[in-house]
Amino acid sequence: MTFDIINVLPESIRVILIAMIPIGELRASIPFAIGIYEMDPIEAYGLSVIGNMLPVAPLLLFLDPVSNWLRRYTTFDRFFNWLFSRTRGYNYNNRLEKYGSLALIPFVAIPVPWTGAWTACAIAFVFGIRHRHAFSAIFAGVMIAGIIVTVVYLFMEFLHPWVF
Asked: Within the chain, what is the greatest distance between any pair of CA atoms?
C-alpha cells in the first residue's frame, strides 16, 4: 500500500523526499535520480540540494525549544547539563566564535555516512552556533557534497563499461 502511494508521486518529488531522509540525504538521491529516473545531472543536483535543505531550517529552529521542553524532566535536565558543560564551555567559545560555522562546511561536504545536514544541525545546536551562520555553512556544504556526489557518480557511470 505504501509503495502505491509513493509511485503516484512525480519523480521530482520522490527525489526531494529521498534527499530529506537523514541517512542517505543527497548522497542517495543524486545516484537514484540519475540512475533510476534518468534525470539530467543538473536537475538531479538541484532537486537533491532543495530536498536536503528543506529540513535544515526547522531543525535549527526547533532543537533548542525541544531540549528546553525536555529539561522539565530530571533525566533530560541532567543529560543536557552534562552535554552543554562539555560543548558550550569556556575552552570552546573563542574558537567556535571564529571558526565554528566554517567547520560545518567540510563536515557536510565530505560525502560519507553520518556527515550530512541533519548531523550538522545537531552539531550546531550542541555547540551553540548561531542559526543564520549554521544555515549558511550547511547550505555551502550541501552544495559542495552535491557536486562531489554528482561528479563521482558520473565518473563511475563512465567507467562502468570498462570496469564491470
From this structure: 60
